[in-house]
Fold each of these.
Amino acid sequence: MSVAKDLETPENVIFPPGDLYSQEPPLESDLHRQQMMLLIQSIDWLWQNRNDFYASGNLTVYYSSRQPKSEDFKGPDFFVVLGSYRAARKSWVVWQEDGKYPNVIVELLSDLTAATDKNLKKQIYQDIFRTPDYFWFDPNNLEFAGFILEGGEYQPLQPNPLGWLWSKQLGLYLGVHEEKLRFFTSEGQLVTTPEEQVQSERQQKELAQQKVERLAAKLRELNIDPDSI
């Protein structure tokens, strides 16, 4: 029996309350946790002036009345829902969110989860969620792959010369940079986090100050007072 048929919800089912807590276990390692937060922080920072999306991670996506009783499925490590709104949630409850499913999902592979991420979850995201863009990434060995939903089935995305994969839903590339999965704009610019942006601005100020100091030193060598200019 297909995953889609086995997990479909009859029309006469009464859904449980929408105020459901996430049931996700802790991520496998610090690397996994840091990677998840990196994706969330960078997309939130890039789209800080938007309020038409929701990005989260390691959060249960409830889509079936039978699901809370099943241990077969856990929520995505990172996902983005477009056409929604930014607000704190205990979980993502599809029937309380206008029937919206994630537009983009990233699973972080580990020895314990890789088989599930590549098979059961991939099948659920394809057949039930109909999530257009699905990626997986292993923070340990840097395995990276992506898929786009075409004709109801996932087709592998082809990398550009840098090895990046395009997310049509986000309008961004995903690629490995300094052993982390990162977002890049269509122009190839790295999507930073707030902390990275502050650090970059600080470095630019320091470089500008050093340039001024070098110029002042050169003027003094020429017996010119830089303060008089």
Note: The chain has two domains: 3-191, 193-229.
Amino acid sequence: MAGIDFKYAVSGDILENYIKGTYKTRTVWERVFLHLKSKGIDAYSPGQHKGKCTTPYVVLKNTGTAGFEGSNQIGSQTLDVITYCPRSNYSDIEPYTVQVQSFLGELKGYIRPTGNITPVILDDSVNGYTQTIEYQTFQRLRR
């Protein structure tokens, strides 16, 4: 899939095979993305969503990998799960974020919440409210 925008590659086959359990994800980000898509969540990579926020959606962002002190083999990778709801629906942001967290709880053997959750803020650039939840996974460092 090198050179293919993942949004378009997820059209049918990859998502269907993920749901069937026959697609092996390549990254933490991809597994979380496909899991949310399989639950009906409108998910995007950073910069992919265009236009104003008219319905709730999620942006997934890999925020980096860090090694554990004293180890060059084991570390953790963090992901930001950024939820969006339209400006006209402030009361929907918290229930939507809780729903996304519930779906991600199904991956508890794979990722875990760090406890870092930002306050709800208004993002005028998309005309919607947003909130970020941080997750992490432990992994071998690539060398």
Note: The two ends are 22 Å apart (CA to CA).
Amino acid sequence: MCKLLGGGPRAEEIHELWMEYEENSTTEAKVVKDFDKIEMILQALEYENEQNKDLEEFFESTAGKFQTELGKSWALEIAARRKKHG
């Protein structure tokens, strides 16, 4: 990825940010990981509602894995909306 960016300071910065995310070493990395899970379950909820399918495995795969209070609260809100439609 860094080679595609031509190397240099920008590429190094992106590499450092990627490693921060992979290592889950900062609050920002934790928020981004939570947002990634939120996006997945939101999309699963949309598919369930639009296509009348049960995508429980997506919700189970994220259960108990949110690291931030924001992620946890959003996940609870999505679960409540899912229960309301189910």
Note: The longest helix spans residues 27-51.
